[in-house]
Structure formats: C-alpha cells, structure tokens
Amino acid sequence: MSDQEMVHETAPRGLKTWLWIVGIVSIVMGALAVLFPFAATLAAELVIGVILVASGILELVRAFAMRHNGSLTWNLLFGLAALVAGGILLAWPLQGIVTLTIVLGVFFLLGGAFKLVASFGMRPFPGWGWIGFSGALSVLLGMLLLFGLPGTALWAVGLLVGIDLIFLGVAEIAMASAIERD
C-alpha cells in the first residue's frame, strides 16, 4: 500500500470538506486583511493584548495555587509582566502597533542577515542562492518597515497576516484536492 493510499484510508470522513471550508475562509479573511490592512493590524494588536492579559491573569492564579513549590516570586513576576504588557497594548493600541512593527522589522533584518550568512556557508550546495535571495528580501523588508515608520505601522502587520492567511488557505485547499484525487 502506498503512502497516499494510507493517508486516504486513514483520513477521517469529512476531512476534505473541512479543509475546503477552512481554506476558503482563510483566503477570504486573508483577502479582507490585505484590502483593509489597518483594521487587520489593529485587530492583531488587540488580540495579542487580550492574549497577554488572559495569560497574565492565569499565571497569577497559578502562582498562588502553586505557591508552595518555591517559585511564587518568579511566577508572580511573569504573570504581572504579561498582564502589564497586555494592558498597555489594550490601553494604547496605536503605540502598540508601532511597537509590533518595530519588532517585526528587527526580526526581518536579523533573520535576513542570518539567512544571508548561512547561504554563503552553503555555497557548494545546489539552491544556496535561493536562501541568499530570501535573506536579501528579508533585509529589504525589514529596512522598508523600519525606515517607513510610523506610516508602515498602519498597514504592515495586517498585510503580512493577510498574505499568510491566503497562503494557508491555498495550502489547505491543495491538501483537500490531493485527498480527493486518491
């Protein structure tokens, strides 16, 4: 039995239907994020703020519940840090968007530099140039985000989330199509 036959036989009923549904929803949501990048950026920033607040509250509860294990202070500090960071993002969302854009820009710059260095170390192998190209694009994107501040903060995160959602949706539909062909 081939690997594809095994996947087809072991795939739960309805899997391809759910892949199609989630794929289409991902593409639609991604397209909306690309069309309305500021709204998507703001939504992403607020979601991160809510997650941090919820995580901080849960961490504080856990710290007190497990206070006898000797790590109360560190758990409290972590919980307070998450709670404060999330609260700041929720209280000042526009500043939070700028901060997220700075973090993203620095990530692209550093990640791109690391990929460039790695590509030169891979030079005898086929395809090393693609890693270098990816690194150069990341560096360029990082510079675009950072040198374009504060304007890039209004669209960057939402646009990138939208593009990611579109590619996720396409990948899910491709998986559903592959299951259907078997």
Automatic annotation (TrEMBL):
Q: Which residues cross the membrane?
A: 18-40, 46-65, 72-92, 98-118, 130-149, 155-179
Which Pfam families does its entry note? DUF308
The superkingdom listed in its UniProt entry is: Bacteria
Keywords assigned by UniProt? Answer: Membrane, Transmembrane, Transmembrane helix
- Which Gene Ontology cellular component terms are annotated? plasma membrane
* PANTHER family named among the record's database cross-references: PROTEIN HDED (PTHR34989)
Q: What is this protein identified as?
A: Uncharacterized membrane protein HdeD, DUF308 family
Q: Which organism is it from?
A: Salinihabitans flavidus
